[in-house]
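Table S2 (continued). Query chain:
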Amino acid sequence: MKNSYFNLIEQTYYFPQEGFDLRGEFLTFHGISLQYLINKYGTPFRLVYLPKIGEQIKKARNLFNRAINSNNYSGKYNFCYCTKCCHFYHVISEALKHDVNLETSSSFDIDLILKLHKKGELSKDRIIVHNGYKSDEYLQKILNLQKMGFKNSIIVLDSETELDSLLKLSGDSKIKIGIRMAIEEEPQSAYYTSRLGLPQKDILRFYREKVKGNDHIELKMLHFFVDSGVKDSMYYWGVFNRALSTYVELKRECTQLDSFNLGGGFPIRNHLGFEYDYEYMIKEIVKNIKEVCSNERIEEPHIFTEFGKFTVGESGAIIYKVVEVKQQNDNEKWYIVDNSLMNTIPDAWSLNEKFILLPINKWYNQYTKINIGGISCDHSDYYNSEDFNQQLLLPDIPVNSNDPLYLGFFHTGAYQDSISGYGGIKHCLIPSPKHVIIDRDEKGNFFDYVYRHEQTVDDMLGILGYTKED
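Corresponding output:
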């Protein structure tokens, strides 16, 4: 059939491609039969494919190390996983198997680290970079961590007052710090200076007045963060070069400074036509740092990245069933899926994030333009071309079809549960779907299990204060 969905995809993109293929008429994800998972667990469900996490870590590490070797670069590369991207134990535990360092954002992150250490999965010599607003509770927990022997714990200061608080709490203890440089953000509407970090013009003065000569403080790192990520754009390279020049200024006065933290992460694939030259960007980053340091005759810094979405984003997917087809007018057809899109992929409506959307079955049906809606009563609970500047073309099924179509949003492994709140109250009291984990055993065979079942009525009503007696 010339107008089949399969022909559309095959003619528009390279297909099959990494992570996606067909087995018969059903889609597979990293070689996993989604038909098997649907038959076993029903829908909706969220899945995490753990081996993808290790693949992403190895990819970044190999590319950076290759660039370092080819440029005869003297510093080392350090991969940090930022826990805020996905706090689940099975995710962080998988990342730690690949010797990553960690980046924290708040007080409870320290309790998470202590639990991982107690389980023997996180040693005291692992580098831990502490970002985020430093409440006294957060600072005290970091200092307690250092007293326990976590010798590579670096507190990245977001403001001058954080150092004042830190010095009051630390007493005579020697502490390692970093400084975050505020940048001019690039939102869609207008430029503004980030509330996070110290203004570039104040950093050298701050170092001279409050850090230099203090035997209890060791400045180790300069940190900057570009929210839109590492991109080959004039904006990114402008921020990068300003941060690098600030590093050079500090390094001339502070021999202890030895680390340059790139902050923001790499993009992930959010559509089948996605293109990004990771190797080129990494080579350019390393080459630029090397050239500047050589020209200024300073030692090349260790390079840190804090990849969150890049680490876990492509490991996740959410699978739905189309429970109703609605033809609202001659040109507007809706597929209603069996959960709320606002609850399960909140990035899509709150931050206009895009994800790879593919049917699981019916690839040989004709395709048609479709809007997708969730089952909540909110008008924003939809995913269509108006907000995303793209047509949603999917296999066509009739209004009263008894043969269901299944849909998947892929590469949803980052931030969804943090934004929507995992295990809590959801809009319209629509429950969180099952959470399925997929891994490989030592022989390379797949195995799967339910991490958490769909929320029950008692789960939700208990949170809301209703007891069984009520």
